[in-house]
Amino acid sequence: MTACPPGDEHRKRAGLLQYRTHPNVLGAVFAHRPGPVALDTWHDLCRAYRERVGDTRQDVQPPYRPLEAILRAVLGTWARWDVSNGQAQLLTGAEMPGEDRRDVFLYWGEAILPDGPGRAAVQRLADAIAEAPAVPYPDLPRPVAGRRSLDWWPGELARWRLAEDLAALEWQLGGAHPARFQLCTDGTLAAVGHEVPSSPDGEGRQRRLLPRIKIGTAAAGHSARHAVTVNAVTTLLADRWYGVRTVLLSNPEQPLAVVARTDGPPWRRRLNVPAVAASRRLAGLPRLTHRVPPFPEALEEDLIAATAELGAVRAVAPESVTTPGLGRGHGMEMFRRIEEHIDQHCEAYRDTSPVYIEVPGLSVPTAKTGARTSGPILPQHLPAAMDAAGIDRLLLVVLHHTDEVRSRVQREIARQWHLGDDFVAFDTEVKHDVIPGRVDVLFLHDKAGALAHGPATAEHRQQQLAELLAPFPTEGKVVATLCETQWDPNRKYPTPEERQKAEAEDGKWPSKQAQARLGISAQYIKQAPAPVPTLKKNGEPCSPYFIKKATEARESGLVSSTENALRDLVRGLDIVDHRLGTAFGKLPLHPWWHIGIHVRRHAQRRQYGHRNTKPAPVTITLAAIRPVDGPDEPWTAWAYSPITSQWEPYRRTRLAAHAADPGYDVSGFPTIGDESHQASAAAQITEAALTAARTQLPLPGPMVIYVDGDTTEYIWAGLRDENLAHPPPAGLPRPASWLPGHGLPPAQRPLAVVRTINDLERIGRPTGAYVWGNNEQWRRTKTSESPYQLVSDDGTGYLPDFLLTTVPRPWAAGPPGRFGSDFSRFAPEAAKRQGKNGYAHTAVRLTAIPTTDDADADLIGKAGVVLINQGVSWDGRQTEPTPLRLAKQIDTNHPYYRRSCEEPEDSPPPPAAMDS
């Protein structure tokens, strides 16, 4: 084990598939630099391409990913076409003959510019690249702190070198024969020929999972050392071309599997034209026949069916496709095997994992120990929490369609608020003082059909709901509803058109928006699924044991969903009890405002064959929470949105956001340099919100900011690894673009900005922990939920970087949810339980960035760990701190969130194409 601070040598440590790269890992790199003529020619080629695609207003680049895929297939190793810092050059991991270079560039260029003025530029560029001598790269840049960008080629090469080492290994994964992973031209590893099959279904179809290994660039945080991560995934192989985005082509004589992307609408997929044209031309050259397989010119359905098992073509299905008979994930044992293989066979990465040591005095174990407050808010705590939320009296309305839902909700209200088994509430009759002096309950049957499915608009439903509630006095009361809609997500539809029509007429979304416009917080409840069958499909009776277990699971799911619906309704009303303060334990609870900033760029609506140049809208929300007094007192929650342009109680901002259409138009915000409209808008709106927070939030106090690094690093440059702990550059065009709150006067800036990361490709997969045993040896544990802190590079102290590992809830539920804990999905034992998902650890990385001299970065980071472990209403651990989660839920709970986060197509597919 590597060095750690004195006195902490034997403390518990995290196991993590993250490895620091050695300066010699990159190996030899050859550069082909044709000189200024190549750069000018490249610009001419780009200009001709923009004119050809008919978009001269934006910086449209030629499709160079297919170019790199073919270059790597021809060379057999890493290659990159790099245009940066006023220089165009071809970088390769081995020497490449000039004739091969010329052919690749020429055939690729002919595919994108077959005629016209760009044809001459293609010819000149190909000749210049072929004539450029191959020289070792001078002053090879070594991996440095924070460089994680895909545009930084040494980081990509470091990942490639580790992938090459792993591709040379034979993996003993528990099966009868060793498995091998083939290196693909995009840098991933695929177990080509070792696909995991499912059992044949009733029609004899067999689905297959392709195991893959991905090498990523780690988030360095405050560390000065570059690192890479290893993660394993499984992807379903497609049995039709609908929606396919990735295609793998391989053959035994080819050193690399060529990765090709598809374009076109989902119902008419085609392979990238440059890749197809270049590969077919190169495959005709005798010297390259064994290197470049010919891509199929057309994607035929029988191409997949005939070659899915043994052939060269493997199409990867979209992630949204279900896997009948197949679970996802390799299982935890697979990650431990990867760790063992790297330690045994990859000398450059052996014992180079960053050291994370358990944080002393910060206990965040599972809920059973009592460290995390679980369950609903107790009735004796509701009055104080309602006072903190500014709610004097609450009217809870239950809008139902079926008696089953009505009785289930009535039982749950009685259970959560300790009303006894004899609690009864009648329809159309207000049950006063369910919580004395604070809460009334009303059950109503939706006879008007305000929640029913159909083409009724939100305005029409708003009128129906207003008439439905008119007989009941609501003056001075906050109204909230628990709603039932008749929607079965598992219902099968004969055609895609019928499903689209049913989803478009789903009554949940317009009725939820209608209630938001009436100032009513709404929460929807799950309907009861179909009864447990007593007969099998073949007519045989089911076993009593199966019926018993299935019935118990069904009832348990209904009780859990009803409990969570009522608790989420209370959370949406910003009723926060003392549980957050209690969770701090021995940590000091300072009167800070904890502010979460959520920014999401919407999916750009597009129509195939046409470019949409208007900037995509964004959603920007901020949520602020703060303890009212001590650890035994409730918390207050406020929120900000561009729609309201002011800080208001969380409930009001949430309703205002849900009453309007999702998204905020950013086309009017000016940009500087290569800044996007979304980044400009997010930075300026956030700065205005933090400025207003100084005067509009009650109980003024210092601020701590929480942001999601995976989605906001393009907005604030100070969040990027290479800029941590560094002052902003002198020529920064806009202070608001450095860090949230940086544009405020120094005395008013936040104490710190806490960057959270959930992407395991940047964190590394946790593999458990190492504990120093009584025998003075390191002992491996399979699970760990402890918080860890990163040891400094010199091993003398700690950095304000924290890691919080989590095991999934199925593992905590017991042995049935622990598939993959003792063997990988390749093992023969896995065949009996192939339909189960393989469990694996997840993690959250927190990096505290102090912005004032007196900020205690370690304490702020530990507070972020507590706010991840303890939620407002949820019993389990969260994936982000509570203020960031509250800000995010304003967006994700929007009635039409799904329409703005998917990739819609403006032109619906023709029925014949969809059916095929």
UniProtKB/TrEMBL annotation:
Segments of skewed composition (Basic and acidic residues): 489-509
Task: Give the pPIWI-RE RNaseH domain ranges.
Answer: 594-895
Report the InterPro entries cross-referenced here: RNaseH_pPIWI_RE
Q: Where is the composition biased (Pro residues)?
A: 907-916
Ranges where the record places region Disordered? 488-512, 890-916
Q: Which Pfam families match?
A: RNaseH_pPIWI_RE
The name this protein carries in UniProt is RNaseH domain-containing protein
* Species of the source: Streptomyces endophyticus
